[in-house]
Design a protein that fits this description.
This protein is α/β, with parallel strands linked by helices and 106 residues long. The chain has one domain. The chain is 37% helix and 13% strand. It is built from 3 helices and 3 strands. The termini are close together.
Length: 106
């Protein structure tokens, strides 16, 4: 199964272990946008509002082909700044709640 991982950039450091576990179960993993440079957005914001808007639009456009080629979207929603189960901008419809149990992915 092809699984697209989505999460806040603040959780990117948690992806490698999850990715390894899913790959051991023979899943193909598609990584989130800006995974290689998670805080690029902060850099772009400092340049100008216009550049930030253009960058954000480009990131959103990159989601579509990743979603289309995926069989599932795994949203990592860990606690962030005291908010339990934090979910960033993009989530799926009709989710299966895993509660950390990656074996529920089949």
């Amino acid at each position: 199964m092809k699984i697209y991982i989505c999460c806040s950039k603040h959780f990117y450091d948690r992806i490698p272990d999850i990715k390894k576990e899913l790959e051991r179960a023979e899943h193909k993993i598609i990584l989130p946008n800006s995974y290689e440079d998670p805080f690029k957005e902060e850099e772009v914001k400092k340049r100008s509002l216009e550049e930030h808007v253009q960058w954000k639009q480009a990131m959103m456009k990159q989601h579509e082909p990743k979603v289309k080629e995926s069989n599932a979207i795994l949203v990592l929603n860990f606690e962030k700044k005291g908010q339990a189960n934090y979910i960033d901008g993009a989530t799926g419809i009709n989710p299966t709640i895993l509660n950390g149990d990656l074996t529920k992915i089949n």
